[in-house]
What we know:
Blueprint: H1 8-22, H2 31-45, H3 50-58, H4 60-74, H5 85-105, E1 110-115, H6 122-134, E2 142-149, H7 152-160, E3 162-163, H8 165-168, H9 173-179, E4 180-183, E5 186-189, H10 191-194, E6 197-201, E7 213-218, H11 227-240, E8 241-249, H12 261-265, E9 268-271, E10 274-276
Parallel strand pairs: 1-2, 1-7, 2-6, 7-8
Antiparallel strand pairs: 3-5, 4-5, 8-10, 9-10
Helix pairs in contact: 2-4, 5-6
Amino acid sequence: MELIKLTADEFKKIAKLVYDKSGIDLPESKLTLLSNRLRKRLRELKLDTFQQYHELLLNPKKYEEEMPHFLSAVTTNETYFFRNENLWKFVRQQWLTELMEEKTNKNVSTIRVWSAASSSGEEAYTTAICLREGIKDLSQWKVSVIASDISQRMLEQARQGVYSDYSVSRMDKGLLKKWFQHKDDKYHLKSEIKNLVNFQFHNLRDPFPNGQFDLIFLRNVLMYFDLDMKKKVLVTVRDALAKGGYLVVGDVDPIRNTAGLSEVLSFDYCGPNLYCKPRVTKKTALAGA
Length: 289
């Protein structure tokens, strides 16, 4: 069977559609990667060319059904529980302890976390496990973990709470046994953890309603966007984070190394992958940025 090829012109059209729908910037160097990832969809849809696939995506009657598959194909969703051990030590041993003490002193009982671009849910559920383990009197607190993604397909997968050996391979064996059931060669997350997380659709270029989060994860996402989109995403995050709250970014962190991003965010750098929103608005922050 002859291999379906993606031409440079077809790549430009599809790359523009990716950017318009998700804000993800695909340079020409990604032509081979994009063609390889989308070729499977063409075979499943019995299409002969990428041009036909592009026309399908532009068809209002086919758009809603195919777009989740399309976005899943052009985004990377590889992750696992407790990714970056030092980060989760900070969450459990410092952030949560200090936050609970501060809120108790203020007679506030809400804790809100946002896992942005949550993919298949490992990060959000890891957060929920940390909260469940770290808060002894959980019934006295209103805990909310919001996990959002642009792919409805990934959101539905995450809601199932079913994972492979790879996803849980770096977990503490005690926590794994405590919060998962192993059956049919899969690890099924228990309802006590699943019920702490609410998965919902969100495009990072848009404002997030009902913000004021105490902690926001934005890991390994910014690298996919061009400068304008990076700024829009950082504004979304900045406005959604409560004063004194923390922002966690990925190992590839362009904020400190890209001109203009730190000014838009106007957060304090607290260490690798970690920023804090000042309790007092900085005078240097860009008004309305």
